[in-house]
Amino acid sequence: MRRTLALVAGACTAVVLAGATAYAMTTDPIEAQPAGSAGLGRAEAPLEADAPAARAEAPAAGPAAAPRKEGIGPVIDAVGRQQVGALESVDSLLDYRTEGATQTFSYPGAEYVKVHFNELTMLPGDYVTVADPARTEVHRIDSDPLDVVGGLLGSRPEAAGEGVGRWAMSVTGDTAVVTLHRAVPDPLGVQEAAGLGVRVDKVARGFTDTEQERADEADRALTENGREESVCGSNEARDAVCYKSADPTAYKKSKAVARLLINGTELCTGWRLGSTNRMLTNNHCMVTSRDAYDTEVWFDYQCTKCGGHAVFKATKVWGDKVLSTNRDLDYTLFTVENFAQVQKFGYLTIEPTRPSRGSEVYIPQHPGGDPGMIAMGSDKDNGGICAVNDPAYDGYTTDSDVSYYCDTAGGSSGSPVISRKTDRVIALHHFGGCPNSGVRIDLIYNRIKKLL
C-alpha cells in the first residue's frame, strides 16, 4: 500500500526546499498526534486564514510564456479523475440472529477498504460498525426506524433509480471488519425471518503498489495521444510539513486542502473556500449532488514529519450538496456533512484580480492521492520558485486559464493555485501539459460570489 496510518511502504519526501525563503518557526495550532494516538474530530483551535506572512515582491522576469498547443481540446477532454482502486463483487450476509456477528474483508497490500451495503434494515437501537482490525478507525451506522418501513436503513441512500444501498466510510489499510451490534438478542431469528438483514454486495479497495505502478504507466502512455506529463523537469513538490518552518503560512494554508475519494475508486483534490460550509473542486471531478454524496473528503491527511513515514489520522466527512458547477470554467462548489468537524483546518480566500506574468505561486495538493504536498520550487522558473507563465492561457475557452510550471500529477485536479505575495487563491488547477494550468479564479468568483 502507499501509506498507512502507522507504517508505510515508502518514505515521505526528503527535505529539499528548493528556493524556499526561510522564516521563523511558528506554532501549529492544529498539530495532530500521529495516527493511532488520537481520534477523529479533535476539539482544537481553529486556524486563522487571513494573516499572510510578509514576503518580498516577486520579480516580473521569468521564462517566456509558452505558446498554446494546437488541438488543445482533445488533450483536455482526456482529463478525468485519478483511478486509484478497484471494485470487488461480494455477497456477504451478516447473521442477524447473533449479537456481534462479523465479516472481514481483506485485500493484502490495498491502501484502503470501503464496503457497500445493498441491504441494511435494522431495528431501533441496532447498528453496524466498519473498522480496521485494531479498531483505531471506527465508523458507525445507526438504525433509523423511519427507513425500516421503506426497506432501507440509513441517512445516505443512493439516488432513486440508481439501485439501493449505501457506502460506508472507508478504513485506511488493507482490511475492514464489519460488525452487527444488536440491542435486543434474537436467538430464534424472528427478526431475520421478518425481512431484517445486513448484506454487503461490493467492496472498493485501493490499488496495491504494483497495480498503481501499472495504472501510472497506462496514464503515461497517453502522451502518445498528446497528453503530457504534469511534472515539469524534476519533481520538486514536497511534503507539506517540509514547509512548516521554511514557509509557515504556506503550511498553514495546506491544512484547508482535502483529498477527495470519489465513488470509492477515484481521486481529486478540493479545498475550503471562505469561513462557511463551502468547498471547491473541478467539474471534471464532481458534477451532481449524487457525486458529492458518494465522495469522502479527507482533511489533515499529511505526513507527520518531513521525510518520515507516519501520517496523521485523516478527519473524514461526506460531501453533501453541489451548489454550482460549470464545465467551461471546470469548477464545482459544494458543501460537506458534519462541517463542524473540519472548521478547525481553516480556509482559503480568493484574489479577485488576474495575476501578472512572473507572480510567484504555490500549489497545496494530493498528487496521486498521496498525503498533502506543496509544489513551490521549480527548475523551470528563474529564481527556482513557481511563477505565472501566462495569465491569459487557453483552457476550455480562450484566455480562461493561468499557466505555470509547478509540478502536479493525477489526483491534483481541483487544487488551489495560491499567490505567494497575498496567500490568496488566483486559479483552480485542472490541466497538465507543461506548462500546467488552472482556471482563473476571478472568472469563477463572478459565478459563485452570491453563494459564498
TrEMBL record:
Skewed-composition ranges (Low complexity): 42-66
Membrane-crossing segments per the record: none
Signal sequence segment: 1-24
Keywords recorded for this protein, A-Z: Signal
InterPro entries xref list: Peptidase_S1_PA, Peptidase_S1_PA_chymotrypsin
Keyword Membrane among UniProt keywords: no
Region (Disordered) location: 35-69
Name recorded for this polypeptide: V8-like Glu-specific endopeptidase
Organism of derivation: Asanoa ishikariensis
